[in-house]
Amino acid sequence: MGEASPIVGIIMGSRSDWETMRHAAETLATLGVAHETRVVSAHRTPDRLYDYAKSAAGRGLKAIIAGAGGAAHLPGMTAAMTRVPVLGVPVESKALSGMDSLLSIVQMPAGIPVGTLAIGRAGAVNAALLAAAIVANEDAGLAARLDDWRAAQTDAVAVEPE
Ligand code: RP5
């Protein structure tokens, strides 16, 4: 977005993941967080993954949101190659409804953490909110915008169901 250097990277294993991952991008845009979006596959483009992860810290990324489905190795492999915090979003797969994605992402061995979110849209939105919260620790303006976003969400909850 804009000319600002991205501070959050959103990567996904396939263009087919965009329908889920666009919710992360939209949430970051709403909060005014400079970000980039890339297709990076652990299996189909391993060299692209290597380059992305190895350059992440040096390029100033503060968090990486990685979404993938099925045998979802993208978040874990990214985390293996960078100290930048990685937030994993399990994309809902056709065959197993995202349970395969979830278990592939969440069951990391001790020593290489991936912060794993919910399957699908909720995970993508929450990954963006967590990434924003991480950045907000060092960015008072973003902290204020995030507080405002949360307050607006609270205000929008109806008292009565209809
Ligand atoms: C994974 O395989 C991707 O993250 C995607 O969720 C899944 C299917 O990819 P496509 O066959 O639709 O490209 O690597």
TrEMBL record:
Protein family per UniProt: Belongs to the AIR carboxylase family. Class I subfamily.
A biological process from GO: 'de novo' IMP biosynthetic process
Organism for this UniProt entry: Sphingomonas cavernae
Enzyme class, spelled out: isomerase
Function: Catalyzes the conversion of N5-carboxyaminoimidazole ribonucleotide (N5-CAIR) to 4-carboxy-5-aminoimidazole ribonucleotide (CAIR).
Domain PurE: 6-157
Pathway as given in its UniProt record: Purine metabolism; IMP biosynthesis via de novo pathway; 5-amino-1-(5-phospho-D-ribosyl)imidazole-4-carboxylate from 5-amino-1-(5-phospho-D-ribosyl)imidazole (N5-CAIR route): step 2/2
PANTHER family: PHOSPHORIBOSYLAMINOIMIDAZOLE CARBOXYLASE, PHOSPHORIBOSYLAMINOIMIDAZOLE CARBOXYLASE CATALYTIC SUBUNIT
Pfam families: AIRC (PF00731)
Catalytic activity of the protein: 5-carboxyamino-1-(5-phospho-D-ribosyl)imidazole + H(+) = 5-amino-1-(5-phospho-D-ribosyl)imidazole-4-carboxylate
InterPro entries: PurE_ClassI, PurE_dom, PurE_prokaryotes
Annotated GO MF terms: 5-(carboxyamino)imidazole ribonucleotide mutase activity; lyase activity
Key words of the record: Isomerase, Lyase, Purine biosynthesis
Its EC number(s): 5.4.99.18
Protein name (database record): N5-carboxyaminoimidazole ribonucleotide mutase
Binding positions (substrate): S14, D17, R44
Keyword Magnesium set for record: no
Gene it is expressed from: purE
